[in-house]
Amino acid sequence: MTNFIPPLFARKPVQLTSAHLWSSACLLALATTLAAIQPSQAQDVSRYQFAASNGTFTPLSGGTPVSNLSANDAISTNISLPFAFTYGGRAVTTLQATTDGYIDLRGSSTYSQSINALGMGLTTIAPFYDDMTGVNGTASYAVSGAAPNRVFTFEWLNWADGFAATAPSLSFQVKLYETTNVVQFVYRPEAGPFDSSTASASIGLDGGSATVSGRGNFISLTNASASPAIVDNTTATAPVNTINTRPAAGQTYTFTPAAILATHQGQRAGRIEVFPNPAQRAFTLCLPALAAERTAQVTLLNNLGQPVRTQALSLNPDGAPTQTQVEVSALAAGLYTIRVQAGGYSATQQLAIE
User: Which of left, alpha, beta for 73 (phi over 0: left; psi -120 to 50: alpha)?
Assistant: First the structure.
């Protein structure tokens, strides 16, 4: 692979005649997507897509300290987010962090640590949910980037696993990405000992409501390896809360929401469709008929929420759907988000590249 990124979109879209205004492949993709995304699942975090990768843990510099978390069994006051973050289909603007390695999104919580488990209806983001202590550590948060691609990072630096532990054994961060609403965890083991015989952590997301046969709404990692499997409320009755190893330095876990339409107008106009997905060297992008628009801006973002490519795309002049081939052979394998904006229409779709 090289760093060169070729133009993504063809100079001219395929002109669709009245005989095939919408290709059979587009119709099939549309039917599949509409069938899969039901209103009852709009807040189901188990539908998030998960990816593990290697990265770099970079400690925050100049962040805002949260001094009361340098303790044992504590929770912060409400921390305001710099942007509305959509989690499980609900926009949140504040969060609370705890000494036990999770973020609480309910907005008015008190400290509670009982079974280290997700799926309990607590609406939590848990990079390492265990009976931890920050007595010899520091907690802080910071915002990086510029709108609409800001990143809010919360950091537990030099944390110890075990309520009586004193030597720091793990540092970790939660990153929340504006616009894409991606959740990401990044880790760094520290020099202190880690007692695998007592550790019993959960890593994953809790959506805060029961959605499948009374099961909790969760996505849970089975271990802290470089390629953990996941369980969720469609495949298991309970999450995993027995993780007893630390993630490696730079280990990164990314949770990406299922594709949603960003505006009500987008819902009325229709969805963008992508096939095949996963893609290898290229994929086809289908846009719905947008009678009032002539051009669209298409942005491809990586799994960090960073724009990889922005391109203007000409739409069919007669208001018919537009279909075009997209070349991606120069891009690294991973999860991407395609964002389309045309006037008042805005939509996103997730893409996996193999």
Answer: left
